Each structure stands twice: as C-alpha cells, then as structure tokens.
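Q: How do we represent a protein-ligand complex in a form that can be generated token by token?
A: Start from the inputs.
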Amino acid sequence: MTAQYHVHGDIAVITLANPPVNGLGLSTRQGIADGLAQAQADASVKAIVLTGAGKAFSGGADIKEFGSDKALQEPNLNSVIAALENASKPVVAAIHSVAMGGGLELALGCHYRVVAPGCSVALPEVKLGILPGAGGTQRLPRVLGVETALNMIVSGEAVKSELLASAPGQKLFDKLAASPESLMEEAQAFARSVADVRPLPLVRKLPAKHPQGDAYFQFVRNMVKGMAKNFPAPLKCVDAVAAATTSRSFDEGLVRERELFLALMATPESRALRHLFLAERAASKIPDVPSDTPQRSIQAVAVIGAGTMGGGIAMNFLNAGIPVKMLEMKPEALERGLATIRKNYEAQVKKGKLKQDKYEQRMALLSTTLDYADLAQADLIIEAVFEEIGVKEAVFRQLDAVAKPGAILASNTSTLDVDKIASFTQRPQDVVGMHFFSPANVMKLLEVVRGAQTGKDVLATVMAIAKKIKKTAVVSGVCDGFIGNRMIEQYSRQAGFLIEEGCTPAQVDKAIEKFGFAMGPFRMGDLAGNDIGWAIRKRRYQEKPGMKYSKTADLLCEMGRYGQKTSAGWYDYVPGKRDALPSALVVEMIEKHRKDLGITPRKISDEEIVQRLVLSLVNEGAHILEEGIASKSGDIDMVYLTGYGFPLHRGGPMHYAGELGLFNVVQAMHRFAQNPLDDAAFWQPAPLLARLAAAGQVFN
Ligand code: T1G
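Then emit the structure tokens for the protein with (2S,3S)-3-hydroxy-2-methylbutanoyl-COA bound:
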C-alpha cells in the first residue's frame, strides 16, 4: 500500500508514500480509504492528520495512470474525497512542498488545512488539456473567492502557500505553520484543538458567488478565448467555475465539473499535452545510462568562438551562475562577442526582464582570452567555431593538448560527424556533441550527440547540466543532421516539390501555419537565410547525387534572394520590416521553371500540403527510430516542438501520426508515391512504420 497509517496518542496520521510526488494512483487512494476507516473504527483516535512523505504533499492524480481503467477504479479520487468529507472525526491536511491538482483537491475535502510556508499550490490540470476533475473548480472558489480561484485554474500556475494564507478572508488554510520542520507537530496540535468541534466544517457548505455574475464570466470568456487559441480547456475551466456560482446545489456543480472533465480528457489536445508532459521527462533518461551514473562536476565552462552561437551559448551558463571563459583568435572578435552579449542583456534589462544587478553579476562571471592555455582548468569546453571539419580538427587537437584530464570536450556542430571530431583527440570518451539552436540563449532545444565512444558519465553530466541551464536535452546518435535537421531536410524537399507542382510559397506557408506551425517553410527559409540550405544542398549534390530536389531554392539563391537579410527571398520585405510580401518575381521564376520542366501546374489542397509536409517528418522520424539515432518517439516529438515550431496541441510529428492512425499514414504515403513529380523512393514507409501500421500499433 502506498499510504502508511500510524497512531500518535489520540491522533491518527495517514501518510501518502508513493514517490516521487505521491501521485494519487489506485494503491494510494486505497491506502487513504483504509486509513480513514481504521481511524474511525478506533475509539482512542480523536482526530486524523493526512500528509505526504518525501518531496511533496501530493502532485495530483497519477498522470501515468491516465487512459487506463485504474484511474477510474474505485476508490476513485472523488470517492476518497467524499470519504474525507463524511468522516465522523476531524481530518486535518498537513501540507508541504507541493500540493497540486488532485493533491490540492484532496486537501480541500478535509475539514481543516495546515500548510507549511514555501509550498507550491496549484490546480495545473489546464496544462494537461483538462480541468480539475475532483471538485477543485467547485471548492477553490469557496475558499479563495471566485476571481482568485479562476485565475489559478485557468492559468494552472502555482502560488506560494504563504501568499495564499495571507490573503484577506481566505478560507483555504486554517493555519500557516512556522516552518516545514514544525508542520507535523503543529498539525497534530491543531487536530487535538478541534477534536471535539461539531459540526465539522465542510468547504462544500461555503458560498461561491461573484457580484457581477454572468457579466463577469462573459468578460472572462472573451479574455480567455484570445489566449486559449488551439486549446479548449481554458474556456471549459471558466464554465466549470461559473457552474460553482450558478448551480442549485454543490453536488449539481460537481456533476457539471465531471461532464466537462470527461469531455476534455477525450480531446486530442489533452492527449497531446499529456504525452508531452511524460515525453519531456522521459527525454532526460537514456536507456543504457542508469540514473545513478556518477556525474563530473561542472564548475567552470569555456566557450570557443564568440560569434552569434558562441555568445548565446555562453549566456546560458552565465544565466545559471556558472563562470565562462570565452576564447577567440583575435581581440576584435572577442570585443564583438562581448558587445553582442551585453546588447542582449541590456535589451532584457530595458524590457524589465532582468534586473541591473543580476546583469552585472552575470557579466562578472564572464572572462575572455586569446590563449588556449587559459582553458586548462575548464570542466566543460564547448566549441562553436566555423562549421568546417578542418577548423574543428585544429580546435580539438589544441584542446586535447591543453584541457585537463576529465574535461568534457563538446562540439556545437550541427551536421559534422562527432566520431570524426573525437578522433582528433586521445580522449574520445570525453567528446560529445552539444548542438544548440539559434538563438542559443533562447531556444530550449539541445541535441546531445552521443559519439560511439562518448562515456556514459559524460552523457549523464551533460544531461544534468542541460537541465541546469533550462534546456530540453534530447540524445541523438551520430548521423548527418542528427534528428531535427535530418527530418527538416525531407520537409524542405516536399516544400520544393509542392511549389513545382502548382503551389505558391504563400499557399504552402498558409496551409501549414493553419495546421499550427509557428512559421511555414518559406517564411522560415527567409528568416534563417536561404543560403544556409543552399550550402547544404551543394554538399548533398556531391554526396548523394541520386537525391531528388526541386531546383527552385537554388534558382532563388542564384537571384541573390537570401531572405530577410537581403530584403528579398521567397517573399519581398520592406527594409526594417518583417512582413513577408508575396513576390511576383518569385512566382514568375517558379512558373518559368515549371515550363522548363514541362510541368502543368495543378491545384493542390491544403490537406495534401499539410500531409506531405508532416508525414515526411514522420517517415524520416521512423527511420531515425529504427536506426537507434533516437531512442524514443517522444524524443523526436520533443525535438520538433522545442526546436522547429511544431504545434503544441498536435503533440509532435510522431504523436500526431498515432492520432491519424499509422495505417492511414501508410495509405497516404502510398498515394504520394504514385505522384511522378514527387520522390516515390522516399515515400516507401520506413520498415518500422510499416510493421507498426500492419499491427495496428503506434510508435513507442
Ligand atoms: N503523476 C505521475 N507522475 C508524476 C506526476 C503526476 N501527477 N507529477 C510528477 N510526476 C513524476 C514525473 O513524471 C517525474 O517522473 C517525477 O515525478 C518528477 O517530476 C483529478 C486528474 C509535481 C511540480 O499536473 O508539475 O490531478 O521522470 O521532473 O521538477 O484534478 O512534476 O522521475 O519518472 O516534474 O520536482 C495534476 C504535474 C495531475 C502536476 C514536481 N498534477 N507535476 O516537479 O519533478 S491531473 C500535475 C508537476 C489531476 C485531478 C486531475 C511536477 C512537480 P520520472 P518532475 P519536479
């Protein structure tokens, strides 16, 4: 049982003990119910205290149980909360550290609540695409007031216990303990002090009203509609809280809440968010690297290259309070790098996002040098130099000569072979790829590229330091383009074929942006610079002469239309503005190109545009999974969400394919393969995809 029962004198204590956060899984719920029954049957027990062991009171319903029948199996959460409310003896919740979701709802079912300071209190269900489904939308307004409760439920954000406990008129907490350490003693004393109080206070008996009633909720709905965009849950949160103020009885409000909760549980948006909650946490786990693998201590970092990437990379560590020594070849390059970092921070200070003293603290952690010998004490050295293997070789040979034993040598390469780079040193076990995404101080994604000989402790250390610098780290094996860039190459190829076959760049962008991408492939090319893709294709033409590409992207670059930086790319730009204006010149170039190829343009539906772009990611992702470049499909989803603007409410390419049904995905690929202007070979479903589709399964 994952709840313990002890009697201390005349107080029974029920302790949730389901690490890591006392998720309210079936066995925990059963443990609470059993403890309650035992306490009520024991005449020597005058009152009951409910608390949580470890680092949380409770993190809520067990997300890992969702979708299984265990979540609804009796005693379900609502039954346990009803048992608390109907207990014949006072139940006091002793709350510390984390009281979230069902955990807070559990406490709201108790007669009293004693809380330690510093506890994070939240109803974060909306972040999972659902809403509090165990009375939270009906009870929280009764103890905090409608507006405070609604803000917490619609935002899902945590509020510190001492803040809530000091709100005038609040009835959420009956006592704020002096400290987490004194919580249990104070809670038991409090329980003794109310042991004979009757009738026992019930949150459900308190009123829930808002003076402006419907007008207020209409106002809130309008506000929330704009913010909620592709997510249905926030508006339903408003409906549930409104029901608390309009229902004829508390229980009628509970029924309404349940209806709304179950409806949201069944939405694709909620399935996507729940998938991502677990995928994000799973990404930091490497199947063959045990979680207790010893890590190397990272106290000092060095960054080689003070360009855009190097500066952004350095900022990540400065922001985490880790000193950085930045090396360049020439003083003016260092000066430029420092100026860029200062400019970035000053922009944040100006926007009020960074305090001046914090800015100065961070800059004080930054030092520069022109001499490799100064890197001898660095624990982690990251090179962000020119993307050319000869330059990388020179850097790593020098690092091998000066870096102390045990220093981790990381390359920020986005396409080069990390094993080759490791071969330039005598210490391949210390070499790893750390592929940041530009702007490196903003983009959350970090691809950690594992070389054949990269040590497990190096991987464990890099995953831990990634968490410290607030990156979503995903491990990739060594291949051209790792995970993200390898997949986007297929996506870009499809975009090129689509405009050859009859689309305009604007039509392709609009279709995929309607699907939810932050930016379509052509606007993205103009932003990143079309010449970057051009350089990669030139290399590709040498390496893989058989690989089919549309020539339009090359023709565009030959016109000098690199994108925003040349005020002309796939679109025209007014200097200083970012608005992408469709270009007649580009449409003319495409039409001429079609004529040269003897292509008769055809009307292509938005649906075909979206499916070819998204399924090209899915097929390449399936190959990546099969080759072991990525170890889990959720990792691929995390790469695409945090690095390439895949829409959150779709859950990532691999999850989205599962929502479509892999059988349907394979059928669509067979259709695309019939198109002579497309690349039939590419649309052969990856063997893993074909196998799963045939078995009616989804990606792991
Ligand atoms: N269920 C199951 N596992 C959970 C969990 C949960 N609710 N919360 C966290 N974990 C696991 C997580 O997967 C990870 O596992 C480990 O705990 C540490 O998590 C009816 C239906 C609590 C603030 O949305 O916000 O109640 O990877 O890395 O940074 O209304 O976890 O180690 O195997 O995040 O210290 C509502 C979600 C559920 C809270 C701790 N509750 N959790 O943060 O650790 S729905 C939530 C969090 C609900 C009712 C409805 C955070 C945390 P592993 P972590 P952390």
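The chain has a mean pLDDT of 96. Residues 20-21, 23, 56, 59-64, 77, 98, 100-102, 105, 124-125, 128, 132-134, 136, 281 surround (2S,3S)-3-hydroxy-2-methylbutanoyl-COA (CB under 6 Å).
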